[in-house]
TrEMBL record:
Family, as annotated: Belongs to the short-chain dehydrogenases/reductases (SDR) family.
Membrane-crossing segments per the record: none
Protein name: Glucose 1-dehydrogenase
Pfam family of the protein (one): adh_short_C2
Keywords: Oxidoreductase
Cross-referenced Gene3D superfamilies: NAD(P)-binding Rossmann-like Domain
Source organism superkingdom: Bacteria
PANTHER family: 3-OXOACYL-[ACYL-CARRIER-PROTEIN] REDUCTASE (PTHR42760:SF133), SHORT-CHAIN DEHYDROGENASES/REDUCTASES FAMILY MEMBER (PTHR42760)
């Protein structure tokens, strides 16, 4: 029996990168999974390769009505929600004074506001069933920062606070909320900024970028009952970056 046998999970930003890696591992461990993404072509293409246990729905994570549709879609197909992985995110590498208000707000809405909406609309169903695990993807830049990370760092620091507040509120209902803080991972978002990735790699004690699967194994632990007494905590997977 898999570690997620009988569980139903929603993973945002699930068409590629870490989200797709999480979804594959969840399926291997027995879960039924709904992946969501703004990229309908890639999302549906990915889901089509995995049968009825993996479904896709187009989703703007910053849109409240879209979140209601995702929850309804999941319940209609799988009857419950046990795990929410708030994985979707974007990043610009732009100096603060050069960043437009529009760019800043897009990062905040996608990375931060989406986590609020996800918890707001998924948690009531977990509370009703007296069980659930919410995993909010922050970043090592939710613990430290660097030049050019305005907006991204802001949103990832905010996720830490939201996670802790939600953990306190949901704990009496056996619903756990934790944040995960990946470092530099080999995802499309990171690899489209090769100069930044190279500079960050030099600063990592382990001297390499992580594979998405290395993060997925931590996400799996938090989604499973193996982490039944962990809530409100920060789990770092960054090759030692933040300890320097």
């Amino acid at each position: 029996m898999g570690r997620l046998e009988g569980k139903v999970a929603i993973i945002t930003g699930g068409s590629q990168g870490m989200g797709a890696s999480h979804a594959k591992l969840f399926l291997q461990e027995g879960a039924k999974v709904v992946i969501t993404d703004i990229n309908e072509t890639e999302g549906q293409k990915f889901a089509d390769g995995y049968g009825d246990n993996l479904l896709f729905i187009k989703h703007d994570v910053s849109n409240e009505e879209d979140w209601k549709k995702v929850v309804q879609f999941t319940l209609e197909h799988f009857n419950k929600i046990d795990v929410l992985v708030n994985n979707a995110g974007i990043q610009y590498s732009i100096p603060l004074i050069e960043m437009s208000a529009e760019q800043y707000l897009k990062v905040i809405m996608t990375n931060q506001f989406s986590v609020f909406l996800g918890m707001k609309y998924v948690a009531p169903h977990m509370i009703a069933q007296k069980s659930g695990s919410i995993i909010n993807t922050s970043s090592m830049f939710g613990l430290v920062t660097s030049a050019g990370a305005t907006g991204y760092t802001d949103s990832k620091f905010a996720i830490r606070g939201m996670t802790k507040t939600a953990a306190i509120e949901f704990a009496p209902h056996n619903v756990r909320v934790n944040s995960v803080h990946p470092g530099a991972i080999k995802t499309p978002m990171v690899m489209q900024l090769p100069e930044l990735a190279a500079e960050v790699t030099k600063m990592i004690p382990m001297q390499r970028l992580a594979e998405p699967e290395e993060v997925s194994k931590l996400i799996l632990f938090l989604a499973s009952d193996d982490s039944s007494y962990s809530t409100g905590s920060e789990f770092i997977v960054d090759g030692g970056y933040v300890i320097q």
